[in-house]
Amino acid sequence: MSAHQVESWMHSMGDFGYVLGFLLPFIESFIPVLPLFVFVFVNVDTFGLFLGIIVSWLGTFLGSFVVFLIVRAFANTNVMDKVKNRKDVRKFLNFVNKQGVTPIFIMLCFPFTPSALMNVVAGLSKMKVRTFFLVLAVSNLIAMALTGVLGRDMHSILSSPIRVIIMVLILAGLWYLSRRLEKRFMK
């Protein structure tokens, strides 16, 4: 199924299209292998720049916050003890507990940061629920806006080879920058 077919299908669903546009990023919070940027592109192309970003932001923000709350609720169980003992999680958890919310905020602003890891680490950290709520709300809005602006005019981008190259370079740059930040904060 092509992106154009998905857009047509979502338009034909009326108001339920917004529900689907919300649910796809929401579900991605639980299944991080799903392509969030594709969902945002489709939402922006289907609903327009502003509404597409808002629908995507609400889905990913609320989904990520639910993941955080679930992890927080089960933080002292055997399963979470295994997660806490993973080397990468333990390193980042120690860093977040020492440095505060800034690293999580910065990393969540980039669309290609492993947000599932950020949500889990925040849930296991000493961070207050209200603080994470605010950090997540603002950083996810920035990430969805960046992604939405890139995907704003998907049809014209895909019809011009130079625009495709520019878009790929921008996405690769954002991906590279998020990986560098991840490595810097994980040291």
Automatic annotation (TrEMBL):
<feature type="transmembrane region" description="Helical">
    <location>
        <begin position="104"/>
        <end position="124"/>
    </location>
</feature>
<keyword id="KW-1133">Transmembrane helix</keyword>
<feature type="domain" description="VTT">
    <location>
        <begin position="35"/>
        <end position="151"/>
    </location>
</feature>
<keyword id="KW-1003">Cell membrane</keyword>
<dbReference type="Pfam" id="PF09335">
    <property type="entry name" value="VTT_dom"/>
</dbReference>
<keyword id="KW-0472">Membrane</keyword>
<keyword id="KW-0812">Transmembrane</keyword>
<protein>
    <recommendedName>
        <fullName>TVP38/TMEM64 family membrane protein</fullName>
    </recommendedName>
</protein>
<comment type="similarity">
    <text>Belongs to the TVP38/TMEM64 family.</text>
</comment>
<feature type="transmembrane region" description="Helical">
    <location>
        <begin position="157"/>
        <end position="177"/>
    </location>
</feature>
<dbReference type="GO" id="GO:0005886">
    <property type="term" value="C:plasma membrane"/>
</dbReference>
<feature type="transmembrane region" description="Helical">
    <location>
        <begin position="49"/>
        <end position="75"/>
    </location>
</feature>
<feature type="transmembrane region" description="Helical">
    <location>
        <begin position="131"/>
        <end position="151"/>
    </location>
</feature>
<feature type="transmembrane region" description="Helical">
    <location>
        <begin position="16"/>
        <end position="42"/>
    </location>
</feature>
<dbReference type="InterPro" id="IPR032816">
    <property type="entry name" value="VTT_dom"/>
</dbReference>
<dbReference type="InterPro" id="IPR015414">
    <property type="entry name" value="TMEM64"/>
</dbReference>
